[in-house]
UniProtKB/TrEMBL annotation:
It comes from the Bacteria. Keywords: Signal. Residues 1-28 form the signal peptide. This is Uncharacterized protein. The keyword Signal applies. The lineage of its organism: Bacteria, Bacillati, Actinomycetota, Actinomycetes, Streptosporangiales.
């Protein structure tokens, strides 16, 4: 009787340990908002050296330079996924539009 109880307890303990070691920790999500001026850094580095500002519209990051007479001049476009990845290393799991042409990036940690 004692051996059977000891064997059952040992088996339960080993099962509990195996369950604890197999379980994976929950993924945390971190949000970041890239403003148009912040996107300008990505644009200047990855799209065109004269870019100073970028807007997330229509599924892409539109890059612009500041025109000499005022206003903006379009200089190219980039990927919003690449822009989010350019700012942080962890995998990007979601992007979204934020008010004013900003880009929202969600990362998994």
């Amino acid at each position: 009787m004692f051996r059977r109880a000891l064997a059952t307890t040992a088996a339960a303990a080993l099962t509990a340990i195996a369950t604890l070691t197999v379980a994976t920790p929950a993924q945390a999500e971190v949000d970041m908002v890239a403003s148009p001026l912040y996107l300008g850094d990505y644009c200047r580095s990855q799209v065109h050296s004269s870019a100073g500002i970028g807007f997330y519209y229509g599924g892409s990051v539109e890059c612009h330079s500041f025109a000499s007479g005022g206003g903006l001049a379009y200089v190219g476009s980039g990927s919003p996924w690449s822009a989010c990845a350019w700012y942080r290393t962890p995998p990007v799991i979601r992007i979204r539009t934020v008010v004013g042409g900003a880009l929202g990036c969600t990362y998994a940690y």
